[in-house]
Amino acid sequence: MAEERRGAWFGFGFCGFGQALGSGRGRQVHSPEPLRAPGAGLDVCRVSASWSYTAFVTRERPPSGAIPTPALGACPAPSPASSPPPAGGGGQVELSGFAVGAVGGCRDAWASEELLVVLRAGPGPGAGTELQAWAPGSALRGEPLWAQTVPEAEREDGPGGDETQAGPLPLLPCARAYVSPRPPFYRPLAPTLRARRLELGAEHALLLDAAGQVFSWGGGRHGQLGHGTLEAEPEPRLLQALQGLTMAEVAAGGWHSLCVSEAGDIYIWGWNESGQLALPTKSVAEDGKTTSEASGLNEDGSEVKRVAGGEDGAPTPFIAVQPFPALLDLPLGSDAVKASCGSRHTAVVTRTGELYTWGWGKYGQLGHKDTTSLDRPCRVKYFVDKQLQFYLSAQILF
Prior knowledge:
Blueprint: E1 10-15, E2 27-34, E3 42-49, E4 53-60, E5 91-97, E6 101-111, E7 116-121, E8 129-134, E9 146-150, E10 177-179, E11 186-188, E12 195-200, E13 204-209, E14 214-218, E15 233-238, E16 247-252, E17 256-261, E18 266-271, E19 293-297, E20 303-307, E21 316-328, E22 336-341, E23 345-350, E24 355-359, E25 374-379, H1 381-385
Antiparallel strand pairs: 1-2, 3-4, 4-5, 5-6, 6-7, 7-8, 8-9, 10-11, 12-13, 13-14, 14-15, 16-17, 17-18, 18-21, 19-20, 20-21, 22-23, 23-24, 24-25
């Protein structure tokens, strides 16, 4: 077991409902700010951020001398190690923002605008873990919309041993099903998939299996499935373009997707409307010189728009949709280790502990002290100036 150390948590972006703990309402936070935990005796160990509210999983701090390990999230802070959700009876889930409320005995939580899902300790010894789905506006009072028990036996190693240990929600601990924000809430997975992590976009899903292969399914109208078409896929389909490469991370935005290989390479695809793929996009281009527009397809199937008015008078190519995974290089040849996607923006943590963000920035969610959108990776200077680093286990949730 790795030595446990304490990190800090930071938040930035739209905070009109008070989504970040202690931040107040009606704000846009353009640069990272430390989050204030709800009470001196509590420690935030996981964060799940939706648009209008955030779910914080907390646990009681250990006695003096023992130092907890945060699982960095929502706009996480530098910490060398992340922790699993609280064991045993669990900690508390506290909501901040448009949805409020708190409930104890929780091991994990996953927030979306349609649904709040929590994993709670069962009602008695040996009762297993109970999965509960709540309406975000319920304040966690009354009865959940839906509940199901996940037996403790299903939380043990799967067919592949430790390799198949499930990641956080929406993938269930048994790694044989996941939770959807829309009915049916409980959705089984084929046992042959041996799921390790699952991410949900607005209309699609990404799954990383124990062998490092990536599967996608759902809506594909923006190329977010990565199969080279704009067609939907009703069942998980292997990304042929990534075969032979072992992936370590997957992330799903609203309509774009990303994965990070074990070697630290980034592959990204889908919708590029706000520059979230770090490819040239019309919405981020300079104003005033557009006179005409034409469109077509590249050899790789990506949709390209060419707008007259470049610096030399030649048409400037803009990429609207990238239906195949494209290799993305970070500045200085940095290797990526963690990634996360907002609806239309993207963030990556490098092996050296730096944070890069790009895409839609209207509410300051890129953390660059402004509201500019970017179609190229840009380092968040706040953490450099403060001499703070993200560590390999950092997890960013938007």
